[in-house]
Structure formats: structure tokens, C-alpha cells
Design brief:
Strand content: 15-25%
Shape: globular
Number of helices: 18
Distance between the termini: 55 Å
Number of domains: 3
CATH class of the largest domain: Alpha Beta
Helix content: 40-55%
Number of strands: 17
Largest sheet: 15 strands, mixed
Radius of gyration: 25 Å
């Protein structure tokens, strides 16, 4: 026993300096990484403090939660992907020509058009028709009709595709199209496909529909991850009729059917040259997922003018499209003169976006932010509420719309500029997921959508700063703790 005790003591004494040296080395390496790669100095100081105050443990925590692998992983996965751009069939509208299409008071939007062109690197195309479709009650029949009338191709990409009454109707329509010789491709996010059991993928397979899962998970770590998802909602038939917006495929969007969990939302029917931007986004994602290149007249036909809207697709993701949408939002808020109307279900803006909203309000711009009073994700609602004071203090107006839950995503600026699509005002949409939005320049479309926003605002409750400050202390603490996880929810 004495010999064993002495042996154990010797081993302990030998390993103690080794472990100490390893912890010191790990802390130095972690600190160096923080200094080199953390852009926010406050975040950097916090991580360095954790690394040194909790030796070894702090470095390990930083390794798993502090290192941002999202963009690097997305870029490495999609870095060699051939990005296809359809041959233009319509001359682009140059920023200096914008005044010919808009009222005199909208001349300042030329600066915004110039900015977005540099950020997005896609042309602003004239001759489009954009029609809002409210809820699945209007959107699904139009989308199903487009699938049934397709003769050459159908491209569908979505985050959630439930196997319910609505989902089965789409699956049957897609199967019928495939059986009559239409080239059908369906891309469903791997995480979104798990929202219903059994999965709709089995039904699509039974219907003979060619489909794929975007970024399928292969291990426990990826199963737990909600990043690198495609949140895009795209439908293009025969390369010339498109649908996009924020609407998934699930029965809850058919509000008139009085589902158990009704969800309001907006989808948009798109016609004209800009449909090529929707198809390009789908073709890139399909090529990345399956390796198949979609080319030719069936997918990219010559597109004629269908209306008066100037429009451009805005793809955003953690790859080479990183923060393109965020730059677009910041540019739009900086150029606003009269009004900004925002519909979003999830409002967790970063400090730069908060500052841009506040600066617009302090310049005299009417900034109205409409959020659902009852959110489908309570934790996100708590985190959002902890941030409301930041915009209320400087003059932004915040409204809570009554149930059913409103999943709509929309921004209308100065009665002439519209941003529509799949992205929310949170870090997940602006930094972690793949999104598709469209910017539109048209006073008639903007007026129609402002009217829709106004209808929602009439029944909404206006939130005041005293109301936010008057929350009970336990509620404020709960909301504040939820806010700490805002970058991850």
C-alpha cells in the first residue's frame, strides 16, 4: 500500500505540470483566435475573460460555441459550385434610369438601386408583375393550378413540406405532372422535412416525383444543428411563372379551414423577366444538392414583359452571399425619407440594424414595426420583447397584431420600394440560413401592400415604452436571459 500510494503521488505530480502547461497553451491559442477573428471588441473581451478565468473549460467552451464555423463550412461546401446565370432577355434598368419609372418624389431611390446592384450583383429587371396572395387560401390554389398547367418543368423548393391535407394535394399535383412527362424537381430542407411524421418524402417517392433533401444530417451533431438550412420558398413552372414569399406548405396556412394552429402569411405570384432570378436560385441549390445542372428552354425560356414592376432577386446565405440581405436592409433604412413599414414574425435585430431603425425615426421617418402578439415560438418572443425598448426609445412605433399568428415578411419604404420574401429580421435569417427575397420598385404595388399593412395595424395594439418597462421583474429577467441567446435562436 505505501508503494502504491507513492506511485500514485508520483504520477499525480508528473501530470500536474503537464496539464497546467496544456491548459496554458490552449488558453493562449484560444485567445489568439479571439483577437484575430472576433469583430466585436466587447464579444472578444468577454471570450478572453472566460478563457482565462476558467482555464481549460473556458477554452473548450469557446471551441464549441465561440468559433463561427457556419460561413466557413458553407463556403467550403458550396465554394466550387457553378453559379448559373440565365442569358438576359430584357435589358436591365440602370440606376440612373430609375426616375423614368417612378414618381418625382422617389428620385432618392436611385441611390438604393445603385447600392443593391453592387451588393447583389444581379440586374434590376423591368416588366414584371407581382401579385400578393394572402394566406394559403389564395396562394395554394394558384400554386396548384400552376403545377397542373405546367407542360415542361416544375421547380419547387421549400423549408417545411408537411404530410397533411395541403401537402398531399401538392404531392398529388406534382406526381400527376411527372406522369404526364413534365420535368419535376422538388427540394425540401432536411430539417424542415422532419416537421411531420411520416415524412412527405415517402409520398413524393410513391408519386414518382424526383426530389432531394437539402443538407441531410449524417450524425448527432448535425441532427442538433439548425444552421445552414434552406429557408427559401420557391415555385417556378415552365420557367416563366413563379411564386415566392414566406409560406411553407402546411395546412395551417389555410386559415379559412380553421386549422388547429392557423398561420397567416403572404405569398407572391411573379411573372416577367425576374422569374429567371427565382429559377437561378433553385438551379444553384439543386445542383449543389444533387449534382444535376438544370439548363435549356424547359428551365430558362425567353421571358416577356408582364407588368410595370422593376424587380431583382436577392439571394442570401452564409456562403458567398453572406450578409447581402443585411446590407440591403441597412441601405434601405439609411435612404428612407417618409415611411418604413415592416411585417416580420421574428424581430431580433443586431445593433447595426437597431441603429439604422432609430436613425430613420430620428430623421422624421415614420417607422412602423408589426409583430404578432402571440408567437409560435415563445422563447423567441421573450428574447424579442427584451429588445423592444431599444427601438421605442427613439421614436419607432411597434404594434402587436392579434391572433392568428402572422408569419408574413414584408418591408415597404416611401410608398415606392418593396422587399418581400422568406427572410425574418433575426440572425438566423440574416447570417445562418439560405434565403431568397426580392426588391421591387413600383408605387402601385407599394400602395397595395401598404394598404394591407394598414388593415393589420387597425386591429393591432401599439406597444409603449412604459408598458415594456413596467413588466414584472421575473418576466424581465426571463426575457433578458432569452435575449442573451438571440444570436442563436
Amino acid at each position: 500500500m505505501p508503494f502504491a500510494s507513492h506511485l500514485w503521488a508520483g504520477v499525480h505530480e508528473a501530470w500536474h505540470p503537464v496539464l497546467t502547461g496544456f491548459a496554458l497553451l490552449l488558453s493562449v491559442v484560444a485567445s489568439a483566435h479571439v483577437i484575430l477573428y472576433k469583430r466585436d471588441s466587447r464579444s472578444a473581451i468577454g471570450w478572453i475573460g472566460l478563457v482565462w478565468l476558467m482555464p481549460l473549460v473556458g477554452a473548450v467552451v469557446y471551441l464549441f460555441f465561440g468559433v463561427n464555423r457556419i460561413r466557413r463550412q458553407a463556403t467550403s461546401l458550396r465554394g466550387n459550385l457553378e453559379r448559373y446565370r440565365a442569358q438576359a432577355t430584357e435589358a436591365a434598368c440602370l440606376p440612373e434610369e430609375l426616375h423614368r419609372h417612378l414618381p418625382d418624389q422617389a428620385g432618392h431611390l436611385e441611390i438604393l438601386a445603385r447600392l443593391v446592384e453592387r451588393v447583389v450583383e444581379r440586374p434590376l429587371l423591368p416588366g414584371n408583375r407581382i401579385e400578393p396572395l394572402v394566406n394559403g387560401d389564395a396562394a395554394y390554389p394558384a400554386m396548384l393550378q400552376a403545377i397542373r398547367h405546367a407542360r415542361r418543368s416544375v421547380a419547387l423548393e421549400t423549408y417545411i413540406f408537411d404530410r397533411d391535407k395541403a401537402g398531399l394535394a401538392f404531392a398529388r399535383a406534382l406526381g400527376q405532372a411527372a406522369r404526364r412527362g413534365v420535368e419535376v424537381r422538388v427540394l425540401v430542407d432536411a430539417a424542415g422535412a422532419r416537421y411531420s411524421r411520416p415524412s412527405i418524402l415517402r409520398t413524393l417517392r410513391h408519386e414518382g416525383v424526383r426530389h432531394a433533401r437539402f443538407m441531410p444530417s449524417s450524425n448527432l451533431w448535425h441532427l442538433m444543428s439548425l444552421n445552414l438550412r434552406t429557408h427559401r420558398k420557391l415555385l417556378v413552372t415552365d420557367g416563366g411563372l413563379g411564386f415566392t414569399g414566406g409560406m411553407n406548405i402546411r395546412d395551417g396556412h389555410c386559415v379559412s379551414r380553421q386549422p388547429l394552429r392557423p398561420v397567416q402569411d403572404l405569398q407572391f405570384r411573379v411573372q416577367g423577366p425576374v422569374v429567371a432570378h427565382l429559377q437561378e436560385a433553385f438551379a444553384d441549390d439543386w445542383n449543389f444538392t444533387t449534382g444535376e445542372s438544370l439548363r435549356g428552354e424547359a428551365w430558362f425560356p425567353k421571358l416577356e414583359r408582364s407588368g410595370t414592376v422593376l424587380a431583382r432577386g436577392v439571394t442570401d446565405g452564409p456562403d458567398e452571399d453572406f450578409e447581402k440581405l443585411r446590407w440591403t436592409l441597412l441601405g434601405a433604412l439609411s435612404i428612407a425619407r417618409q415611411s418604413v413599414r415592416i411585417l416580420t414574425p421574428y424581430f431580433l435585430p443586431d445593433p447595426a440594424v437597431v441603429s439604422a431603425l432609430n436613425l430613420a425615426a430620428m430623421r422624421g421617418v415614420e417607422v412602423d414595426i408589426l409583430l404578432p402578439a402571440r408567437n409560435n415560438l415563445p422563447f423567441v418572443h421573450w428574447a424579442s420583447r427584451a429588445m423592444w425598448w431599444q427601438v421605442l426609445t427613439h421614436g419607432c412605433r411597434l404594434w402587436l397584431t392579434p391572433p392568428p399568428f402572422d408569419h408574413s415578411k414584408l418591408m415597404v419604404l416611401d410608398g415606392c420600394w418593396v422587399l418581400l420574401g422568406s427572410a425574418n429580421w433575426d440572425a438566423r435569417s440574416l447570417r445562418l440560413n439560405f434565403e431568397f427575397d426580392m426588391e421591387c420598385y413600383d408605387s402601385e404595388l407599394a400602395a397595395r401592400l401598404e394598404q394591407l399593412v394598414e388593415i393589420k395595424r387597425r386591429d393591432a395594439h401599439r406597444v409603449t415604452l412604459p408598458e415594456v418597462d413596467g413588466r414584472p421583474l421575473p418576466i424581465r429577467l426571463r426575457d433578458g436571459m432569452a435575449r442573451l441567446l438571440a444570436p442563436y435562436v
